[in-house]
Amino acid sequence: MPINFTIDGKQVQGEKGETVLPVALRNNIDVPYFCYHPGLSLSGNCRMCLVRVTPAAPPPPKPGPDGKLPPAPPPPRSMLAISCMTQIADGMTVDTKTPDVLRAREGVMEFELINHPLDCPTCDQAGECFLQDHSYQHGRSHGRFYEERQMKHTKSLGPTISIWGSRCIVCSRCVRFTDEITGTGELCIVNRSDHSVVDVFPGKPLDNALSMCAEDVCPVGALISEDFKFKARVWFMKEQKTLCAGCSVGCNVVAEQVNEEIARLKPRENLAVNDWWMCDAGRLSYKQHALPGRLVEARVDGKAVTRAEAVLAAWQRLSAAGGAVAGLVSLWNTNEEMFLFRRLMKLLSAVAPMGTLEKSHGERKQFKGGFVIEGDRNPNRAGARAILGDVALEVGATAVRKAFEAGTVNALLVVSGAPELAISPEIEAMLARVKTLVVLDVLESSSAAKYAKVRLPATMHWEQDGTFVNVDGRVQRVRPVIQPPGDAAPALELLQEIVNRHPPGGSGVLSGDGVFRQLGAEIEAFRELTYREVGDLGVPARTAAQAVKA
Amino acid sequence: MSLPAYEPVLLKYANQRGMHTLEAYLAHGGYAAAKKALGMKPSEVIQAVKDSGLRGRGGAGFPTGMKWGFVPSPEKVPGPRYLCVNADESEPGTFKDRYIMEGDPHQLLEGIIITCFAIGSNTAYVYIRGEFALGAKIMEKAIEEAYRHGAFGANVLGSGFKLECTLHRGAGAYICGEETGLLTSLEGGRGYPRIKPPFPAVVGLFGQPTIVNNVETLANVPHIIERGAAWFKAIGPSDDPGPKLYCISGHVKKPGYFEGPMGVTIRSLIHDYAGGMIDERPLKAIIAGGSSCPWIAPDKIDTPLGFESLKKVKTMFGSAGTIILNDSVCVVDAMWNILRFYAHESCGQCTPCREGCGWLAKIFERIEKGGGREDDIATILEICDNMRGKTICVLADAAAWPVQSILDLKNYPDAAVFRPEVEAHIREKRCPLGKHKAVHAEMVKQKGKISPRLVV
Fold this sequence. Notes:
CATH architecture of the largest domain in chain B: 3-Layer(aba) Sandwich
Oligomer: heterodimer
Number of strands of chain A: 25
Helix content of chain A: 25-40%
Order of helices and strands of chain B: HHHHEHHEHEHEHHEEHEEHEHHHHHH
CATH topology of the largest domain in chain B: Rossmann fold
CATH architecture of the largest domain in chain A: 3-Layer(aba) Sandwich
Strand order of the largest sheet of chain A: 15-14-22-21-20-16-17
Shape of chain B: globular
Mean pLDDT of chain B: 92
């Protein structure tokens, strides 16, 4: 049974058990807050979300048995209440803009700021700070605090996070985060009154796999990540919604770049995947984009050539093998690239099977709040299963090696978008000995690139369009955050260019969405899907998630 | 000098040597009321307390029987119920509960047994203030004796009722005397008050229905059971009856704690009980019920002390910690003193209280030291307005009430008596009574911590 009530004269609807604040936010009614966080328990201590609440009027009295009307019940008393904790009820009226509400907000803002250092020019949070935003909208235009400010400690809380205590507004979000989400409970509030500040117990630093989320939940600049500290002003950064590829969960992230350098990743809310969180390893994985030794030019037999020449050479050498061709693709490549890879292998009428390359597994970790870091450190295993099939995924690489050892493979195509693939010595030996090796890769140090006869520089997922399928069978978008270095181009384009060399030849190169639509026409898991439909938050694959997961 | 005819109830034996032992308590007919109550139905016990009109002695004056009635039935909320005894007596000016615990602890324990039986609780916690070392020692021993006597344990006084009682020592925080702060502290957390509703009677200690009662309230319960509700109701005014412990401190000759019926006038308390004003100096201000109560002017001296009567003169009875100030007191200095306490004791959870208490204290300090500004009074009143009713518990209100009572002419008529003195401080840029030297301007210059434009 939905509950109907009004906020600022607007009829709104909520579910039983909800409180006013989330319903108001959902209906685009601005109620400022600090301590409320949809992923954490309610604490109701910042007092910023005060609104005026009037309960529903009691029903009019009915005549008693003697026919007389009993005295009318008193009209309901309206009062200021914090909207984050006020349970919604049928017929109640909420006002968020009455003069006393505005005055109360102004009062709370003034209290928050009297002991705040107002060091916005040197604060990393500036530009995305609740205090700044609320101060402009709800605060006073001038101060009247003539006393000395209360200073609090500035110190390191752990390897990833420091605290600027004077900026802390003691909203307790970070404390609740470590209590409820990570279950590690490192953070606490020490001291009383205006000396209150967040701290850790001596000898127990804030050191867990999700620790940097503490900086995300901090609404002000009190908790600062060591990684982002003093790096960039947030208003100079360009945002892109994409995915973390650190494991098969596929956390939704916002990647921000300045001057074509990724400055940081932040988790993006997706209740079907990562809620509001991401792990520290994933958050720091953006550093891959700047790994030294990126491939930046195409080479044929060690000689630098143009992209077109290399593409031609790749086609000629692969097709010259007369079907004695095998292929390996990494589990870091997008669905579109795997699909094009499969098409190319078909066009070459490859006799040997397709195989996959992957990163070695790590440890699976589950946290108190339900967040999971998967052991599978490859973002698109489920996609590979849907497109290349179980056989290619499970025994493909071994089959390719066996075929090579049996002498039925003369040419090998390797497509990889990942640094640090785990390549076994047997596979490495094959790469070193195979007659024709065509490689699309990202790093000079990779085994495939080292032995390549034809080498085309490809991109990482930060630099290209595409989709991954996560461990739960959810199709999600990656988007280009930065431009690829040098001549590097997405495998999506390179593979189409190679395919175009096949007689009678073509020249069209489709966008990611174009290839994705073709994929949808051929493969059940992606039936009739488009990028538009996948959107920011992704959609479940068409085949049952279990089947994709297998 | 005329003391009303009154036979002490709560302190009848407490002031005698050796009354803290079980032996002495039994010799005076101890635990008879508990035996009587255990033979009644729980609902009858609650009804008796309701009929007596006993109101909580902790500060809010909430009817005790009604509070007990809020505990939901076991069918509605299964699981244990708890009784928490609030022995964290921490309101400045109040020192009554400690004498019950130090002098006659078994009286309290008997009250605990009856209350637990009435509300169906098998576990009682006594949360005693950390500073009460002697009280804790005596209580510990008394509980031990009561266990040996069979007043606690699996079979309370042979009735088959099971009751465990534990003494818990606080760590000396004012806020842990707030009932929900007490519960959080008892659970092992930081003493943060919780948002009400739900009230502790429904969701309290460890999420279970819990009654939190003051020591003095519970000490009254055995007497009600023993002598009946009608006897109790006959003591003092009928809307606010019962024996009461009064604490009086400040500029009186004999500060201390006294027992009398509810409704003793302030004049009688000063002159009959406490021996009059020191050096017969004139009265300047009355803080009727503990530091958080609004101040009242000397002309209210004939007001009876009671929850209802003091409401009429815009103050509160609170925890009966009457503080008497004579004309040697500087209003600003005294208020600064009170505010220092609240600025130190605010738990720091809610923004208005965390920042507001400290701010008020700093402003009063500045005024006292000769740094008052024209706009200070308006600022102070606005700060109070922003603090009151905007926080989880009433600590912010408690800090704002006395301040408003000396400055807010609109809501507190007595402010007309005190405000001129604050204005004089600001106007003359010094304390007219010379309590503190006017050092503010010099301080600012020397410290150089405040920007020069603020030098006044």
